[in-house]
Structures are given as structure tokens and as C-alpha cells.
Amino acid sequence: MARPGHGQYYKPVVEANMISIFYRGLDGVMRQTLIKLSPNPTAIDERTARWDLRLEQLKEVQIELSVTPFVEGRESRARNYDLSAQLQHRRVHFSHWEVSSTSFRSNNEVFDELIQTAIGDFHALQIPDESQHIIAAGIPWFATIFGRDSVIAAYQSLALNPQLAVDTLRVLARYQGKEYDDWRDEEPGKILHEYRVGEMTRSGEMPFSPYYGSIDATPLFLILLSETFSWTADERLVEELLPNAYAALEWIDKHGDLDGDGFVEYQRRSPKGLVNQGWKDSWDANMHRDGTLARTPVALCEVQGYVYDAKFRMSSLLRNFGDTKTADKLKRDAIELARRFERSFWIPSRGYYAMALDNNKRPLEVIASNPGHLLFSRIITKERARIVTNRLMRDDMFSGWGWRTLSQDERVFNPLSYHRGSVWPHDNSIIAHGMALNDMRHGAVRVLTTLYQAALNFRDYRLPELFCGVQRREHDEPVHYPVSCSPQAWASGAMFLILTSVLGIRPSAPRKELNIINPLLPDWLDHLHLHNLRVGNSRVGLDFTRRGERTFCNVVDVEGEKLLVNVAFKK
Known about the structure:
By secondary structure, the protein is α+β, with helices and mostly antiparallel strands. It has helices at about 85-100, 110-125, 145-155, 165-175, 200, 215-230, 235-255, 300-320, 325-345, 375, 380-390, 425-435, 440-455, 490, 495-500, and strands at about 10, 15, 20-25, 30-40, 45, 50, 65-70, 105, 125-130, 130-140, 140-145, 195, 300, 345, 350-355, 355, 505-510, 515, 525-535, 540-545, 550-560, 565-570. The N and C termini lie far apart (about 55 Å).
């Protein structure tokens, strides 16, 4: 980080086979990096080690280098680090993770490896918080708790392992906002954005202790609670988190709408907070067509959809748990929000929805991926959903590898930027999921195919956080974004969500039902077997087989509680 000041660096201590580097931060904490070398170097100084080696024919020499961090006041697990024991420990934990998760096996070995990489990533990115685990957003930049990222990754992976969602909800509820704090953009009921415990937070340089500058994490938290109940029927979880759900709903109504126009907007209060607080949170993410930046408070279109979905879902959930008065109000609020949204965000001249409204309620008329999330939240009509879908499939939005965040026909388009024309797998997965929910599955199958083809060009077939939105041509490879996180949780979750969507898997665990509606496999998968799919207290095995343009589903087995599995083919 470029910082105005820093702590005290000390002269490294050099010994025959090690270098110790010391730094005392502005928070007063001493940190040490210990570099050990084996065998002993021929020469060593503060920066360099040199070995003079004589290599015999067909013999090998191994040089080992270990880098161990120590932080004053914390016990280091690395002091007596036994690599073999740690590897065995990880293997045991990963084996338990695999056994408790859904397995995917197809006739396509490369696809199976891609899925296995994503399953491994979800295990590797879990970080403990008390007795739960939550998904860290990504490595190397975001290896910590995030609200929005963790919620979306947990939602994407419900078909893989719903325990991730259960733990995520509990951890985020634990850190839910409790007071008014301008420095951290905190308000009662708000779900955090990011939590860090490093030197810059401890010394008061940054407000991440935790920081609450996220406009969408709170409604997404409610959406995840509802969807997790559909997968698990965990009444105890819902009853435990109902106070948090009520607090989140109160935040939406009391603090989310900054100017009383009925829409949820963001505006930072912290001088060190984020300027943009939606998922496109870079400083230049939200622009008008002429290149001027949208001034806050900003009302993002997808956030209104999240709020609509959260209220609609919570209306149903609270009705099931006996609060019919609040349930009725939430349903009325959601219906009114949808009407108000259509009037304010639809742009007749462009035949599309505005990306956002700025501080003067002027629409951002750029063609962007944000309205694709409206398909997921279903705040718009079926007719409008078809229009949005068709618009997204045009070449200016569809790069050949996936949907861009911004149309290449826009003046402010930059395919190499972070949010103004790049391709984000998680963004694509939410849009594809929305298409499937609106019975427009072929667009979802197409992006499943192109993301699969993109993954073939990345190490271990791992989709990164993002890649560049350069138009695909024959024999091209996707252009890498050099500093994207890999693995990134919601990129690793993209395939699971799209796959669940095109297979038409819709659980209803409280009714002890699993519905499979209009399953559809891409033409590069003839067969897909799902084993150990968890729905409530049941485990299901499903076989999907494609014959020509039709995909069939057979129920292989059901273990645990009785579960009704319905396979439906609708026109």
C-alpha cells in the first residue's frame, strides 16, 4: 500500500543459514519474517544467498527455503511446523469436506477436473470464525470476511454444500451493525462489507474493523436466509436469525433510503470509505454516457431488485413462522417497489433499464450488465425479462467468453478495466441463473459453454475473479486481467450456480420435495451424475442424460428422510 507514513524497519539479522527481517508497525506490534535456508549457503547477506554446487552426473541436489511470519502477541503455528503432518491434516479435512459435499461426475474428464478444482477452492478459502467457517473472498487481495462476496458464494454453492450458507449466515449475523459509526459507515441492522485486522486497521488508517460500506450485502443476506431454508428446512436456524432478519429489514426501510424516494441508495460517510458501494465498487465504475462520474447518493438498479426479492422472500418466510402482519406489509412493499422501479428505471429510448440513478435522479443510460441481475430478483415482468435477455445476447455485450460489465459500444467502455467492460464469472452466473428462473435457459447454457471454454485457458481450469472483455475471435484465448484474484470464491461458485440453473434443480425442503424442471445439458455433456445432493435431511442421487436436444433425469437413490422428487417438462 502507498502510505503517508510507516513504522520502524530494522536492519536484518543474518546468520549462517537464515535471515530475520523485523518491522514494528504504527500499531506498536513487532512483526518478523524468518527465512531459513538448507543446506547452508556458500555466501549470505541481507538480500542474497549463493550456493556453489557440484552436480554429479544423474544426481540431484535439493535446496529448501522456508518463509515463516511471526506477529507479536500471537502464537505462530509455524514454530514447530511439520510439513508432512500438516499435509496429512489437510488431506483428512479435505476428505471430510468431499464426503459431505455433492459429487459431480460426467462423460467429460476436463469438466470433471474443472469442477474438482472449484470444490477444492471452496475448501481452501474457508476461514474459521468461532465455531463456524465463512468463505474468504479471494487470494491474494481479499483473503478475509466479506459480506457481499461471502453471501453470493454461499448462494452459488448451495447445491454443493448448504452448510457453507448456514455458517455464513451465522458469522455475518454475529457482526451485524449495532450502532451509528460514521468512520465505519455502520448503522444498526446493516451487514458488513469487509473485516480486516492488520496494521492499517489497528492504527486507525483504515476503517475495516469491520467496515460496513456495502449497499447490497444486507438484502442479499435476507435472500440467502430464505434460499438456505428452501434447501435445508432448518427451522432452528431461521428462528435463531429472525432478530437479525428483522434488524436487516428495518435497516432497509430506515437507513437504506437516504432521500425518501422509495429506493435504496448509498453515500459514504467515512473519509476512508468506498465511494461506490455496489459490487462494481471501483471509483470509476458508475459513469454517464458522456464519461462524467455519477455523483452520490446513487441508487443501483440491481440493488432495488435485491430489496424486492428480499422483501418478497421474507414475506413468505415470516408467514410460515407466524408473523402474518409483517408478511402482508412486506408483500405490499415489494409490489409497490416494482411499480415505482419500472417508472423510474426503464429508458424507452434505449429499450433497456438504467444502470442507476444519480444524486439528481438522472438515469445512467449506459448499457451494462447490472440489469441482468433483475432477471434473478424477478422485479420485472416476463416481457421485460425477455427484452433484457435479448439485449444481453447482442455482440456488444456478449464477448464470446461471457457477458461484459459494459457494452463495447459505450464511449466509456474499456475491455481492460476492472468494471467498465471486463467479464466477471460471478456476474455471468447470476444473469444466467435469472434467465433460467424466467424459463429462458438457452442463454444460460450458452454462457455455461463459453465460461467452460474460457476456463480451459487458465491453470487447473480455474476461472479467475475476472478477465478482459476483448471480443473473441477464432483461435483466440481470453485476455488475462493480470492482478485478478485466483481463486476467487464467487468465480469458483459460478459453475455450480449455472449448472444448478440449467438442470432446473429447485428444492423445497420444508415440503420434503425436490423439483427438476426442464433440465438441459450443453452439447458437450452427454451424461452427468450427481451423488449426495443434500435437500433437507435427505441425500439424493440424480442421473442427467442428453439425447439430441432433450435431457432426461432419473432418480438413482434417496437416502435419509423420505423425499418426493418431481421431474417436470413444461412447454
